[in-house]
Amino acid sequence: MQRAILARIGYTLVGSTLICVGLGSGAAQAGAMGGASTTSTTAAAQAKGTFGPKGYDGIKLGMSVKKAKATGKIKHELHTDNGKCSLWEWKNHRDRVVYTSKKFGVVGIVVSGKARTPEGIGVGATKTKLKKAYPKIKFDKITHQGTVKLPGKPKAAYTFDIEDGKVSVLYLITVAEDCE
């Protein structure tokens, strides 16, 4: 669940906005995904508005595609080139997407709005605050993304896009996925 994966399936990030730019052979796809700020309603197991560690707004990592669709919260957008995975948009929140695998179910949730992790990290948090909240975070020297495995959930991780020293996009991902 990195920028490269989003790019492969026709999305790019402009600031903290996800933009659908088309697939592979230049097929144009219209539609911006960003800008809307919302207050979420969440599953009972999560505090209101909390992004992770199990999921976000009723969509959980590892949930089957069928169960994720049954929530009524997402709509299908695109398939990956390998046909194994899909990108879904939240119906009423254009600042969120879900990434699914036929084999592993929900493998990623991406947000660029007002979501916050249990440690209080969200869009706009400084890199310093991110390091304090997640001392074991590792930063990629090329993309500048920060990734940290979730304590007590070794099969899941947060990844944070960093622009101008601040978090611009949050990813909740599974370690196992077959989408690349």
Quick structural gist:
11% of the residues lie in helices and 37% in strands. By secondary structure, it is mostly beta strands.
Characterization of the model:
The chain has 180 residues and is mainly β. It has one domain. It is 11% helix and 37% strand. The chain is built from three helices and 13 strands; from the N terminus they run αβββββαββββαββββ. Strands 6-7-8-9-13-12-11-10 form an eight-stranded antiparallel sheet. It has a three-stranded antiparallel sheet with strand order 1-2-3. Strands 4-5 form a two-stranded antiparallel sheet. Strand 11 (146-150) and strand 12 (153-163) form a beta hairpin. It is globular, with a radius of gyration of 15 Å. The model is unreliable at 13-47 (pLDDT under 50).
Structural class call reads: mainly beta
Give the count of helical stretches: 3
- Number of folding domains? 1
**Average of pLDDT:** 76
Order of helices and strands: HEEEEEHEEEEHEEEE
Low-confidence stretches: 13-47
Beta strand count: 13
Overall 3D form: globular
Helices and strands, with pairings:
Layout (H helix, E strand, L loop, with lengths): L2 H6 L2 E4 L2 E4 L11 E2 L21 E2 L2 E2 L4 H6 L3 E6 L5 E6 L5 E6 L3 E7 L15 H7 L4 E2 L6 E5 L2 E11 L2 E9 L6
Keywords:
13 strands, three-stranded antiparallel β-sheet, eight-stranded antiparallel β-sheet, 180 residues
